[in-house]
């Protein structure tokens, strides 16, 4: 890999992991100094990240960390519907019984974690859910689709999807996972694609519902123990 490839990989990892705040500026000279390289590979790496939507071009040799909008999250989900549905269809031709048993085990792990609610259970759910969906791409038989699809899974708003689940939502997701595995066991490509599509479309609707509820939430009025007072807005 070239120096710019290495820089792109590391900066992308940091951006996806949330190490830079939205709106923060990445200056070429600062990145070059940190990594001990010239500005040229830094400029190339930043441009690639701008093209990927993780950064936004800014004047004076730098870029700004992109802020995620609701439309960005929906776009990722919609891309996943297309990519993961295709991955499931192709995986029906290649997936092994051992792969399917592992997906079943991951789904059971999610179910047990949701019911037990042990300390850090959400981290366990998130990790197992990511592994479940990654398994579809690993079994699809296409290196190109695997790379594209797993990149989509890396985005934090997608990976963290279980954090906006109610218990009933999580149980329904487990049921949908079971249907995906059952479809793959029958080697029925159309059923596998439909099961994944239904699962991800439900996730999109859950996200929309959660965001709508958040926007409609009424901020509580200030309270105090003494006499009521009026607070003027400046």
Automatic annotation (TrEMBL):
It comes from the Bacteria. Residues 1-68 form the HTH gntR-type domain. InterPro entries: GntR_C, TF_FadR/GntR_C, Tscrpt_reg_HTH_GntR, WH-like_DNA-bd_sf, WH_DNA-bd_sf. CDD domains: WHTH_GntR (cd07377). It comes from Roseivivax halodurans JCM 10272. Keywords: DNA-binding, Transcription, Transcription regulation. Residues 214-234 are annotated as: Disordered. This is HTH gntR-type domain-containing protein. Transmembrane segments: none annotated. GO terms for molecular function: DNA binding; DNA-binding transcription factor activity. The keyword Phosphoprotein does not apply.
């Amino acid at each position: 890999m070239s120096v710019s490839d290495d820089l792109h990989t590391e900066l992308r990892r940091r951006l996806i992991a949330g190490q830079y705040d939205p709106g923060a500026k990445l200056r070429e000279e600062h990145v070059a100094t940190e990594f001990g390289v010239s500005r040229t590979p830094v400029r190339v790496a930043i441009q690639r990240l701008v093209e990927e939507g993780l950064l936004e071009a800014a004047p004076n040799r730098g870029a700004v960390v992109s802020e995620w909008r609701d439309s960005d999250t929906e776009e990722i989900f919609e891309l996943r519907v297309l990519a993961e549905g295709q991955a499931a269809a192709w995986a029906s031709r290649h997936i092994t019984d051992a792969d399917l048993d592992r997906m079943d085990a991951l789904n059971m792990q999610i179910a047990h974690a949701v019911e037990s609610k042990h300390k850090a259970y959400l981290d366990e759910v998130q990790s197992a859910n990511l592994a479940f969906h990654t398994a579809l791409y690993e079994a699809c038989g296409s290196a190109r689709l695997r790379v594209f699809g797993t990149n989509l899974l890396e985005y934090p708003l997608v990976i963290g999807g279980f954090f906006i689940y109610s218990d009933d939502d999580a149980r329904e997701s487990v049921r949908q996972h079971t249907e995906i595995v059952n479809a793959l066991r029958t080697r029925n490509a159309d059923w596998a694609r439909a099961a994944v599509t239904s699962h991800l479309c439900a996730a999109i609707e859950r996200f929309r519902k959660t965001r709508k509820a958040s926007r409609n939430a009424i901020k509580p009025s200030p309270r105090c123990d003494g006499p009521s007072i009026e607070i003027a807005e400046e």
